[in-house]
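Appendix B, record 7
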Amino acid sequence: MIRDAGQLVACVRKVFGERMPPKRLHVLLAAADVVGGADVRETAKKYGTSPGYLTKAVETGDWFEAVAGSQLPGLSSEGEDVARRSLGQLLIGSLAERAFEEIYEEALSTTEFVLDDERKSRSDTDYRVRNGSGRPVFRVNIKFHGSVFRNAAELVGLEPENCFALATYKIHQALQKQEEEHLSYVFLIVGVPGLTGRAVGDAIAEDLVHLCAIATETKVASVRAVEDAIVAHVMQGAGELSEFFQQIRSAPWYALSARRAINLMRDLLFERVFALRVRNFARNYRNAELDMHFALSSDLTPLRDFLAVLREAGVQGLTSRLERGTF
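Structure tokens (predicted):
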């Protein structure tokens, strides 16, 4: 656990390395440098703050309170749980993306097709695949599911292990994006039953969890920026995550085009979107999304078969199938 500003500074340096941390956290690093003997003016310039503000932060004796306006919080059980779940879920996403890159490289490394990483845009596109001329062929959005819909058989007519849920608004947005840009949109789905954010979060060191909780509770820095930095730091080592990675890597992967998703939703709307059959759904299931439920075994295409079509039939062979909703 992080108990004082000095330990917080050490954790921030570990996570961000030579990169500048988000604002207000950077003043803590500057204060630590000044206490260690650095010149106030030079340090203020280096960290993009004012000498007066930096001097005041150092002189108060409590750098964190001077910067954040509150005392350094302890790590409550509730705060720890929220932080672990959030970081764990982000790590699952990163592990799934790494696994997809390996699967793609194995399947298409000898072809002209290029995989572009679009994750930094923080949009609904994780990757784009381009042909040898540099023209995009389709976009990819990776979806991981670890929770099992135990009432699937009763509510949507599917066995729990054969059921994948996707929010109806995401299907609609994907098709809109496809039609606006004339670029096929493909969901890639992978699931490991029981692999949840909390399960992966338990492997994260306590000081990293506390750093995330501090950012969340005090708003001393952008929570998303801190979470992303922690995830990147953990992924650099990732030794403790190797078991989770192998589970995701070896799990069944599937592809589902936006066109096929919307076609199935229209055909099976009331059968597979059970929220439409439930009286007072919004009242009884607060914060729940309206999901369309798909059968993994029959509605989706195994990813390796999908990539094989791209490799063997080329762009035209794949895009025609995507537009018709075959995949």
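Remarks on this record: The chain has a mean pLDDT of 91. The first helix runs from residue 5 to 16.
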